[in-house]
Amino acid sequence: MSGFRTDVREWRSPTMKEIRGLISDLGRRRLNVPQFQKEVLRVYREGNLWKQLGPWIDECLKEKRDAILWREIMATRNFTLQLLYMAPNTAHPPHYHFNHVSTQLVMAGRMRAREYERLARITEDSVTLMPVYDGVHEVGDTMQTAEFHRNVHWFAALTEPTVFLNFNVHGLERETFEPDVGQHKGRNTIDPTVGGNERHIIGHKIDVDKAEDKFAHRAIDDFPLIIPVKKNARPQRVSPRSRKRAA
Ligand SMILES: [Fe+2]
Fold this sequence. Notes:
By secondary structure, the chain is of the alpha+beta class.
């Protein structure tokens, strides 16, 4: 049907089964969030993802659209695994997440990214931030986000079409940085480019339309970082080549 930009698929696979098992372990508190995030990377590393998802990645690039691989929506939690397409030179504006644990893995293209830690709440609409990554994610690089870990990020496709695997779980954090004041389940836009001092940036929550206008078609490098990243840690990697095959 015209007008729809996403397809819902059911990626029935051992990898998907393992991921659902991890979500269940997180929900039952057999895993905490850092352990869960580590396990997601292990499953990805063992999953030969480029071979499994290759035809869908090609289709996203050809059709210039996203593909949902799995989605479950329940009363208090939901999760989605999806391939997200980004046109060259476009950005997902800076945003924070509420009660959200996610992993992004670059499957094709290159992704310019900035990531931030939230330090403290100033008002209902502003927060202090610390930049922790400012660089480029190549194929196989990951970006992980949780309530108290690199919660704010901003990323853009560079000069080539980019596809990344996005896995997000909503509703399973035990504590949240701020109360539930009606935040979105996915992106909540925030502007980290206005100002700060030598110790931190002030992030201002902004309306999604304003954020899209300001950031969606501009290079990240057009905007000041305000304060430098102290130490850029290399992203965690999931190799496009299968470990099993390489052995
Ligand atoms: Fe995000």
